[in-house]
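Lab meeting notes turned into a lecture example. A postdoc, R.K., suggested we walk through two folding results consecutively so the class can see how the record format repeats. The first protein's sequence and structure tokens come next.
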Amino acid sequence: MYAYGPVPSRRLGKSIGVSPIPAKVCSYSCVYCQLGRTSKLQTRRERFFPKEDILRDIEAVVKSESADVITFAGDGEPTLCDDLGWLVRKSKAEFSLPVAVITNGSLLWSEDVQSDLLAADIILPTLDAGTHDLFKQINRPHGSITFEKMTSGMIEFRKNYTGQIWLEIMLIKGLNDSDRQLAILKDSVQNVSPDRVYVMTPIRPPAEDWVMCPDQERTRYAEQLLSQAIAISDHEEGNFGVAEFANATEAILEISARHPLRREQALAIEQKFDETGAIDRLLKEQKISLYSYYQSQYIRPVKAPNFFNLPKNKTVEIKIVRVNCCSFRVTVISDAEQLHYRVILADAYYNNLARGQMSKEQLLELCFQYFVNNGLLVRLETKFVLRDICRQYPEFEMGIKNTIIKEESSYHAN
């Protein structure tokens, strides 16, 4: 699914999140990212999913629960989505809610990106450093992005944008919390001239285990130095919207993949579905793990290899449920256990593989039977885009096409 929530936001209230890009596609690989290291580092914009499907997903969530704002954030960098401007304008026109975009700000030098963001009500860019060396150390950007290019883009965008810019700064102990680094950072913040400045701390499990929160004294100093900045160092409060999920198990797995869940938040989800024991069962099945960080326990989804390894040619039942045009729930059921996947199959790639000879559901059933027969389930994420997994493993596409040919030959022979 592309839209989810509402989720409780410490800056925006009840926020309907929208992810128009695949997981962990980003122009940065920040050391503090709560979603882990970036798997695909890029600056090229592209259309990842059908924009109409994303809009209909937003509509479904808007109708399910009340919210304060629609927030394009993604599981990476949302401005990499080439349809972002269209989605922002359509969302404002159809749903009568303010629209925010949480971005790392790395592509604001692009005229296309600037144009796409002009219709948004609030832009929340990131600025964690005041020098190129520290920028590289903290944000680990794509090689084409320099500190000067990034900051000049923010400054130029500020000149043309009439909405609110809320600048976010992530303070990390021993990196950007010294008097010297904060003084340099202050100059860059003043050049951008944001309407608000938020000083954040990494209270959720970061991509790199060595990342630590600064001392409270350092946070207070930064808050005072950076033009009366607002410090946010506490956990968000409030409930997660779960109307789009079938049960607590699915909700916990999906939400924790995008937004690290504290154990107490997952327990609240159990109560919403009256599904006591979902967390314990997922732990026992090794589908989630618990990670302690700053006196809180967080839930992390575990990749398939750790809990589901069917032998080749194992007899299984494969269930396909269409969520929308291009999004499907796939359940692979064996005698002992079952595994749930969320798969995106866009029209263009469906046509490339199936040539209109079968439905999307039939194609996905063939794909997963191929994965089972060849012992490949262990190489799949629990949520993936079929096109992207086949680009990552070209032999998958060849194997799927051969499976389709065999299926067609068997049909004509009969």
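The second example is placed directly after the first for contrast:
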Amino acid sequence: MEPVFVWLTSLAILIRIVANPLANVFQKQLTHRTVDPLFVTGATFGVLTVACLFGWPQLRFVDLPTSFWLNMILTSLFAVLGNVFLVRALRVGDLSILGPINAYKSIVGLLLGIVMLHETPNWWGVVGVVLLIAGSYVVVANRHQRMSWAVVQQPAVRLRLLALVFSAADGAFLKRAMLASTPFVTFFYWCGLSFLFTLGWIALTMRRNWRPQLDTLVNHKPLFLSLCVMVGLTQLTSNLVLSRMPVGYALALFQLSALVSVGLGYHFFQEQHVLRKLLGALIMVGGAAIVMLLG
């Protein structure tokens, strides 16, 4: 890549690995204030859609191929499911555990990249994936309970695993859409279509209690707007990075945010066993570094 592209990609990665854990913090704080995860997700997509309309009036609305629309519809559907499951997981689980578990997304991303985009990893990439799994083991298991089926059955862990599968699929289909457009065009339609999906879901399931939810968000407007900014930065920078490197490798590099998640979980929510979780996060970061530098 040209030096300017390398610099821009590196900056996008840095912003992304900080913005994503901060978005998780704001999501968890809102759900602790009795805001429904589905409503938080839908409102966030709605605000981002409006922001896109004001920020990019030259967006393309015509001359986009059928493959673009098909991939964007699937992307938006997976994005909604991933975000709702993520926020539900954050409501009941420790941020410092749920953040590093996201490493499994790179595994799903590698598999989807092979099948959908023909992005085949080398042996170093496999080594990096193994380290990511090992780091996740250290983070999830505790002194009295090893990684087992019982751990996976924990509600927060199951929800987080579902969220990462859907979000990894979101990334793969999003890249296919970007091949027929640009990162900015796909970001706009990602926000808009996701908002329509969540709006329909809210209309079916929350017709009688959406107003109290809206009042709660208005009462915590600074927190909600901060969430919108972090989610927007996370997705926009993800698009920029995905447009320049394989899906699995990009998702692996994003695991650097595990360190931020552990620190934020301790600072905001006084979550325990931080040193052990930090060790696991460091192992995961090592795996992500191998994937990116040698994969």
